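Input sequence (64 aa), recorded before submission:
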Amino acid sequence: MTHKFKVGQTVYFTPGRGTMLASGQAYEVVRCLPRDGGQYQYRIKCKAEAFERLARESELGRNR
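Predicted structure, token format:
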């Protein structure tokens, strides 16, 4: 199995419980990370935020 999303791809982030609220804007995949708990993880970045986020694959989507 491979990562569903690629570096540079635009995604939408729906955070799970206990995660800091998201901006509601599009994010860019910055880095693909190994699996943790059965899911691939990603570093994502929104232009409106000064920091990157860590997201599980199940929290990301392609289009709205």
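Checked by second reader. The longest strand covers residues 26-36.
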